[in-house]
Design a protein that fits this description.
By secondary structure, the protein is an alpha+beta fold. The chain has 2 domains: about 160 residues, PurM-like, N-terminal domain (60s Ribosomal Protein L30, Chain: A), CATH 3.30.1330.10; about 160 residues, Phosphoribosyl-aminoimidazole Synthetase, Chain A, domain 2 (Alpha-Beta Complex), CATH 3.90.650. The chain is built from 12 helices and 9 strands. The strands form 2 sheets. Strands 6-8-5-9-7 form a 5-stranded antiparallel β-sheet. It has a 4-stranded mixed β-sheet with strand order 1-4-2-3. α5 links the parallel β2 and β3. α4 runs parallel beside α5. The longest helix has 18 residues. It is globular and about 80 Å long. The termini are far apart.
Length: about 350
């Protein structure tokens, strides 16, 4: 008689997943605000928009992940930071559109669910959501032993926010003569890790101390991506911001270009701001061409604000703001005046 095969024997342990999620129930619930109408168990999350106090609300949404930074977390066996990276990255993507975040959803996929790893990752997500004042309203946990390698997992998140229709920041106000103000980053954030890992981990271990820093390579590579939302709100409230770019994959030039109306270009004064040492180390150890450095990394600029010269002066005079340094990095010009 042929042996019976159960789902658990095939590699999926539903009971373990339910237990791990149950252990996180209170943490997830602690993120919920008064607008959340549903708890666990339903097929969708309910969020009440009626008390937003907005005249013409427009919903803004974004989905993203943290890329191969997860490989570093797995190698270092430290999983409490990448969930925070995920939330902050997603918040920044809609905040640069002028939106305030409303709620967050996550996806966690793995081969075999390791309860400690799972709880650490989702614990990071709930910690970031709670600090940002947004609820983790739903998510998906998928155990797929034939899809992911042992010990590996994937992570992505979806965020929904809202902005008044007339307050949308889409770059339409940008004009020649506007200045580019860079906002300091704290490292690689969540981009360029495939190149960084190939260069650095070829000759260094994650435990190795970085030259001049006193910290381990793992600590540097797992720095948490900043949440720029409070700073963005400060900028919008103090000056007329014509556009904001979150510097992610594609670097400063390509992400700033996404804002520009036809006929305009961004002239960037490369090397005019302080660059974290990690980028110089990658450049040197990998003999990485400058073009690749600029396309792969933020190079120390996590956010770019496009403002009129008079507003730029006011911002720079009052820097740092919310703990972030600000520096002039370029200007907007008519396209025919400059060539890349």
């Amino acid at each position: 008689m042929k042996k019976k095969m159960t789902y658990k024997e095939a590699g999926v342990d539903i009971a373990k997943a339910e237990e791990a999620l149950g252990n996180l129930k209170q943490k997830i619930k602690s993120t919920h605000t008064k607008e959340v109408l549903s708890g666990f168990g339903l097929f969708g999350g309910f969020y009440d928009l009626s008390e937003l106090g907005m005249r013409s609300p427009v919903l803004v949404s974004s989905t993203d992940g943290v890329g191969t930074k997860l490989k570093v977390a797995i190698m270092a066996n430290r999983h409490d930071t990448v969930g925070q990276d995920l939330v902050h990255h997603c918040i920044n993507d809609i905040a640069v559109c002028g939106a305030r975040p409303l709620f967050f959803l996550d996806y966690f996929g793995c081969g075999t669910l390791e309860s400690g790893v799972y709880e650490s990752v989702i614990g990071g997500i709930t910690a970031a959501c709670q600090k940002a004042g947004i609820p983790l309203i739903g998510g998906e946990t998928a155990e797929m032993p034939d899809f992911y390698q042992p010990g590996e997992y994937d992570l992505c998140g979806t965020i929904v926010g809202a902005v008044e229709k007339e307050a949308i920041l889409d770059g339409r106000l940008i004009q020649p003569g506007d200045l580019l103000i860079g906002v300091s980053g704290n490292g690689l954030h969540t981009n360029g890790y495939t190149l960084a890992r190939r260069v650095l981990l070829e000759t260094m271990s994650l435990k190795e101390t970085l030259p001049g820093s006193g910290g381990a390579l793992a600590e540097e590579l797992l720095r948490i991506h900043p949440n720029y939302f409070p700073l963005i709100q400060e900028l919008i409230g103090s000056v007329s911001v014509h556009g904001l770019a979150h510097i992610t994959g594609g670097g400063i030039a390509k992400n700033t270009a996404r804002l520009l109306p036809p006929g305009l270009t961004a002239k960037i004064n490369w090397g005019s701001w302080p660059e974290p040492e990690i980028f110089g180390l990658i450049r040197k150890m990998g003999n990485v061409p400058e073009e690749d450095m600029r396309l792969s990394f933020n190079l120390g600029v996590g956010l770019v604000a496009v403002v009129a010269p008079s507003d730029a002066s006011r911002l720079l005079e009052n820097a740092p703001i919310n703990g972030f340094d600000l520096f002039p990095i370029g200007e907007i010009a008519a396209e025919q005046q400059f060539q890349d």
